[in-house]
Amino acid sequence: MTDYIKQVTVTGDVSTMGLMSAELDSWIDEVAKEIWEQKPEIGVVHVQGLLSSPEARDLSDHIANGIASNSQIRGHFQAIRGFFDVKNTGLGSLYFFKNADDVRFYDRFSNSGYRSVERGEQIAIGPSECDGFISSTFEQTFNFSTAFYGNDGNRDISNQRTGFLLTRFRIYGKEITFVNLSLHSVPFEDVNEIVEQPQVTRAAGQRQKEIDMLMNELDSEGLKDDAIIVAGAFNSQLHETAMLGDLASTQRASTFARTRDDGRLEAIEQRDRHGRSTVTVEEHRFDLHSIHDWFFKLGRGQMVKKYNGELAQVVFGGKLHEESVFFQPSRHYGMNPKTGKEEFLRHLCPSWADRVLYNSVMSDLFRHDSFCASGLYYGIVGEKRNIGEHKPVSLHATICLK
User: Fold this and answer.
1) How far is CA 94 from CA 24, 285, 332, in A?
2) Where are the domains of the chain?
3) Which residues, in sequence order, are CB contacts of 63 under 8 Å at separation 6+?
């Protein structure tokens, strides 16, 4: 009997990708490589942001077939099962199994419950639902409107695609549920909140409500005893108010504000004692000027890790767990046309928006003994390659079946 199996879960947001872009093909190559190099028994790919493309179906087909047709993937896995929802959530999930005979999937719409996973590829693209997959949107509960921020109405908040895509398997006798998640994606952009200094921004509060909805849904589906992995676009942001306050203090900078005609704050700027701009924050700009790229990459993001606390109420509340984040932020990257090198963009604050979390049951399987725990790895994919604005995040872990 097999005592241990290895799994690799990769999650990535493609909302800024063009269908025919070179970055997309590089993204596909890097994601496929992340899986086949590890030779796991289980490979998982979660994709978000499909509905940001006017060619969502073609984009999904390109991603699914690009990964599934990889020669190394085909040579290692007997069965590939997937569903790309381009009707409601804009989420796509692919699952790869080395031994099809040891895996069954749960279909709540069938009388028999668990069904065998057939060898070969079974990838559905386009339908509103698929056997064995449960999809749901959070918009059905939250009524988004442009009044959410009280701004001029330029942000299309009503077009938010938030929700989850869930599937459940019985793998080597263990019940394992995978959740592909996309939370509220409008980031901390309201400059006025920097002055108001809330502990939880309005956007972060919205994401917290959605996580609570997900956890309640998992309970209502009777999955609390399953081992669960939640991998997706949590879209969590750094606490920028605290970070900017610390920067002003350490750099001995003076802070200046620019207001609109209606008295609302339009921009904040920090200048050092020589009058040089060190920070500029506007509605669509977050710029630390000369130290911007260096600051967020230093020590693989460890300089700003202390501001990465948005998910604390989830992780420290015991709802879900996460490995220590010892990698630089997963967003927002771009090529500098002057240097030809990849760096952090300056229209939004970099953040660890893409995450892989898991529940206590899965944690026990990961840490059943020292052999399991030694196999844990958590990091970004394609760190040294231009694969778009959002870099995927992966979790490698050994699951104990004893």
Assistant:
1) 17, 35, 25
2) 4-237+301-400
3) 14, 24, 28, 47, 84, 92
Helix, strand or coil, per DSSP, at residue 83: strand
Q: How far is CA 71 from CA 33, 36, 53, 276, 279, in A?
A: 11, 10, 27, 54, 48
**Strands, E, within 227-301: which ranges?**
227-233, 254-259, 265-271, 277-282, 285-287
| 228/363 Cα distance (integer angstroms) | 9
Per-residue confidence at 139, pLDDT binned at 50, 70, 90?
low
Q: What is the DSSP letter of 188?
A: S
Identify whether the C-beta of residue 178 lies closer than 8 Å to the C-beta of residue 44: yes
Check: CB of residue 73 under 8 Å from CB of residue 36: yes
Into which CATH architecture does domain 4-237+301-400 fall? 4-Layer Sandwich (3.60)
**DSSP secondary structure letter of residue 92:** E
Q: How many CA atoms are closer than 13 Å to the CA of 70, on its beta-carbon side?
A: 25
Give me the half-sphere count of Cα atoms (radius 13 Å) on the Cβ side of residue 302.
Answer: 5
Determine the 3-state secondary structure of 211 from DSSP. Answer: helix
Q: What is the DSSP string of 23-42?
A: HHHHHHHHHHHHHHTT--SE
Q: Which residues contact 194 (CB under 8 A, 6 or more apart)?
A: 240, 241, 244, 265, 268, 281
Look up residue 368 and give its two tokens: 């059943």
Report the chain's mean pLDDT, rounded to a whole number: 87
Residue with tokens 């409601």: 88
Q: Which residues contact 136 (CB under 8 A, 6 or more apart)?
A: 89, 163, 164, 166, 217
Report the SS3 class of residue 109. Answer: coil
Helices (H), 130-196: 192-196
Report yes or no: 6 and 38 within 8 Å, Cβ to Cβ: yes
pLDDT tens-digit readout, 39-73: 999 999 999 999 988 899 999 999 999 999 999 99
Asked if residues 57 and 125 have their Cβ atoms less than 8 Å apart, the reply is yes
Nearest to 349 by CA among 196, 206, 193, 210: 193
Residues 169, 157: Cα–Cα separation, whole Å: 35
As a whole number of angstroms, the distance between CA 228 and CA 7 comes to: 13
